[in-house]
Specification:
298 residues; mainly beta; Methylamine Dehydrogenase, Chain H; four-stranded antiparallel sheet; 28 strands; EC 4.2.99.-; Virginiamycin B lyase
């Protein structure tokens, strides 16, 4: 399968602000973190972009729309979880374990936010009331990274330094699934209706794991592309960013892979999500959001 892809760049920040991750908010806007300048941005295509200031050194990373109509995000350097309403009211929640480095965050099927603690070998849960619970991993030095809700009612996460994918039930039970490729370095993760998909940044592969723990790996055309984030579209295609090669890629249901260059050079693509307009949107750390639309050709 080949696709005609149109990519448009929209500058929404300065070149040193570092747009990192993005999500569609409950207000129909795109919300994005700016990891270098400590801000959370909001943009509706065709309108002026705005932003909300945090501690400049807080390092906001992954952001999601919460079940309560607010935006929730991790503050990697400040070791907090942030909550921002669409009206701009900010609340920040310190974590019980100091210097835990929260990174990935996702809404769970239980109506809470689940997050990874990269430096503490823990998975965290925070209710919309701000109450935090932490669950220790059965291994040390694992560097849990991205997290997503799986098709089986559990949360799934990457263990970047343990070369594994983890699963935690909403009651707290944890299972670890080792990957076949040594030192693959799994980072980004997402899910469709049947399985969990992830990227292996060090091995240059896309991975798929089913709820029973069966793993399949799909090598990229360029094994040095350093894939970073992944998201599933409604048609069964998973789209991912290639941070090391300035590209966006797709893996189709038949396992064919295609990649497309991003127009701005050296743009450092990180987060990727489906936008309110049904298009794919990519956060470019050099200061922009890229809109990607496709028309399939079989």
């Amino acid at each position: 399968m080949t696709s005609r892809v149109a990519i448009e760049e929209h500058v929404v920040a300065g070149p040193d602000d570092g747009p990192y991750a993005l999500t569609t908010g409950p207000d129909g806007a795109l919300w994005f973190t700016m990891v270098r300048s400590g801000r959370v941005g909001r943009w509706v295509p065709g309108e002026e972009h705005t932003s909300h200031a945090l501690d400049p050194a807080s390092g906001p990373t992954v952001i999601v729309a919460g079940p309560d109509g607010a935006l929730w995000f991790t503050e990697y350097q400040a070791h907090r979880i942030g909550r921002l309403t669409v009206d701009g009211v900010l609340t920040e929640f310190p974590l019980p374990t100091p210097d835990s480095g929260p990174y990935g965050i996702a809404t769970g099927p239980d109506g809470a936010l689940w997050f990874t603690q990269t430096a503490a070998d823990r998975i965290g849960r925070i209710g919309v009331d701000g109450r935090v619970t932490e669950f220790p991993l059965p291994t040390t030095g694992a560097f849990p990274s991205a997290i997503t809700a799986g098709p089986d009612g559990a949360m799934w996460f990457t263990l970047n330094q343990a070369n594994a994918i983890g699963r935690i039930g909403t009651e707290g039970g944890i299972t670890v699934h080792p990957l076949p490729t040594p030192a693959a370095g799994p980072v980004g993760i997402g899910a469709d209706r049947d399985a969990v998909w992830f990227v292996e940044i060090a091995a240059g592969q896309i991975g798929r794991i089913t709820p029973d723990g069966t793993v399949a790996e799909f090598p990229l055309p360029d094994r040095a592309a350093r894939p970073h984030a992944i998201t599933a579209a409604a048609d069964g295609t998973c789209w991912f960013t290639e941070w090391g090669r300035n590209r966006v890629g797709a893996i189709h249901p038949d396992a064919t892979i295609e990649v497309h260059d991003l127009p701005p050079p050296h743009s450092e693509p990180h987060g990727i999500t489906l936008g309110p307009d049904g298009a794919l949107w990519i956060a470019l750390e050099t200061g922009a959001l890229a809109r990607c639309t496709t028309e399939g050709d079989r």
